[in-house]
Amino acid sequence: MGRPRTPILSREGIRATALTLVDRDGLEGLSMRKLAQELDVQAASLYSHYRTKDELLIDIADEVTLSIDVSGFETGGWRHGLTVWARSYRAALAAHPNLVPFIAAGPGRREEALRRADAVHGGLVAAGWPPRYATLIGASTKYLVVGAAMNSFARGFDDDVRVYRDRYPNLSQAHRLSEHAAEIDEASFELALSSFLDGLSNVYSREAVSDR
After folding, report:
1. What is the DSSP string of 105-161?
2. Of 132, 117, 123, 119, which Cα lies nearest the Cα of 79?
3. Domains with residue ranges and CATH for the chain
4. pLDDT of 66-93, one tens digit each?
5. Confidence of residue 165 (pLDDT cuts 50, 70, 90)
């Protein structure tokens, strides 16, 4: 048998190529036309698998976020649950930062995202947090994680010492930050997370326990 003239498409292959495009060119760099070019097919052939770009992005988002772990609320207290969730959440988003704006827009009707949101909210309420606080904590954790996943503080500095010398004496070592970016970003996230949780512990002792 000869080779088929048109490459055989699968939803998995389409998602993988689309994610590669997003990683390389950003969300604005993904279109069904560009995706078809990458796959060496006609754009019309994609629509039998995905009717719209948003439908495709929803599936990609679900696949990327499958590793986000909300089981900590079942195996430990609320602080453990938030720690496990936040760390795995950041890791999933940081692996594909160009996709973060789409994922961060909200769960909408995405089944996996709603399942995780339900587990987080339920875990916090079961631990004694009033529902309003559970909502605020979920939102606050998202703000912390999304910011950490999208941006690198250390990589924002130029590695040329001449940029800082003389004019910015307090930043005399800033040119070295990008060299240690991964370490700084990880430590900074952990500091922010632990400080956030310590603050919540104070609120919990004042608000949550009295509402049980």
Report:
1. T--TT-HHHHHHHHHHHHHHHHTT--HHHHHHHHHHHHHHHHHHHH--SGGGS-S-G
2. 123
3. 11-51 (1.10.10.60), 67-211 (1.10.357.10)
4. 999 999 999 899 999 999 999 999 999 9
5. confident
